[in-house]
UniProtKB/TrEMBL annotation:
Name of this chain's protein: Uncharacterized protein
Protein source organism: Microbacterium maritypicum (Microbacterium liquefaciens)
Length: 94
């Protein structure tokens, strides 16, 4: 499994693979595809999971673009630090 990540500014690149199939890539990596079944556009991600069915090709493109947006990461450190990292209170010496 690839763990390659791309900057959000790197857009999806679309190519029409067949009359009813459009394939998306980002930075040379497969990102998903849109298939037209005659009545609707079916969107699948890079793992083949169905993302939805859309009436227009533009809506299908947008859905795959939204699904490929990098997720925002939480804080580097959790709000509660592990016990080993907590500072112990110490009594003052006289």
């Amino acid at each position: 499994m690839s763990t390659t990540t791309f900057p959000p500014s790197d857009p999806l690149t679309w190519k029409q693979a067949d009359t009813d199939v459009h394939v998306a890539t980002r930075g040379g990596e497969f990102a998903g595809f849109v298939e037209f079944d005659g009545s609707a556009h079916l969107v699948r991600d890079n793992h083949g999971a169905e993302l939805g069915v859309f009436d227009s090709l533009d809506d299908a493109f947008r859905a795959l673009e939204d699904a490929n947006q990098p997720s925002r990461r939480g804080p580097v450190f959790p709000s509660m630090l592990p016990r080993a990292w907590r500072r112990r209170t110490r009594r003052a010496r006289a």
